[in-house]
Amino acid sequence: MAVERTLSIIKPDATRRNLTGQINARFEESGLRIVAQKRIQLTKDQAEGFYAVHRERAFFGELCDMMCSGPVIVQVLEGDNAITRNREIMGATNPANADEGTIRRDFAESIEANSVHGSDAPETAAEEISYYFSQLELVG
Ligand code: ATP
Ligand code: MG
After folding, report:
1. Which of 13, 53, 67, 97 has its CA 20 to 30 A from that of 44?
2. Cα–chain center distance at 132
């Protein structure tokens, strides 16, 4: 199995409810290592740029408003198969469909305020990591 890195975001609904530590514990207990992390407030432009792939979707405006409604934790997770592994730990987009024991099943408020983001492929992981982190912030 290849060691990979993936971009994770703890979304405003989760930082608002003080869940950062509990969510980070899920990653660490699952064998993923948090190798970079910072707490930031996204502007509307930054949220729209990050989610540009969804700009034609009906929920795009609300999604971007939600992402800048409070601070987010952007982080890089590293481990064997980290991209797929993280998406398993997160659970399905809609918490109603997420498996038991996943972050979204246990913490998400709705399909939109679903507590976490995770990259979905190696190419998007590389792009998303460089969207938030400079080379200097990435150890190793
Ligand atoms: P993410 O990209 O945040 O990890 P995902 O890959 O599971 O989530 P996407 O289809 O990429 O899901 O959607 C991006 C985000 O847009 C979702 O996490 C959710 O916050 C929001 N979203 C997706 N579908 C809907 C919907 N039908 N209604 C409202 N918001 C939605
Ligand atoms: Mg996605």
Report:
1. 97
2. 12
Say if pTM beats, i.e. exceeds, 0.85.
yes
List pLDDT tens digits, range 7-49. 999 999 999 999 999 999 999 999 999 999 999 999 999 999 9
- Tell me which of 10, 93, 94, 128 to substitute to probe ligand 1's pocket, judged by most ligand atoms within 8 Å of the beta carbon: 93
Cα–Cα distances in angstroms (integers) from residue 69 to residues 47, 66, 81, in the given order:
11, 5, 31
Tens of pLDDT, residue by residue over 99-138, are: 999 999 999 999 999 999 999 999 999 999 999 999 999 9
Order across the sheet with 33-40: list the strands: 33-40, 72-80, 3-10, 116-118
Q: Is 129 in the pocket of ligand 1 (CB under 6 A)?
A: no
Whole-angstrom Cα distance, residue 119 to residue 58? 21
Q: What is the CA(139)–ligand 2 centre distance, in A?
A: 25
Say how many C-beta atoms besides its own lie within 10 A of residue 109's C-beta. 15
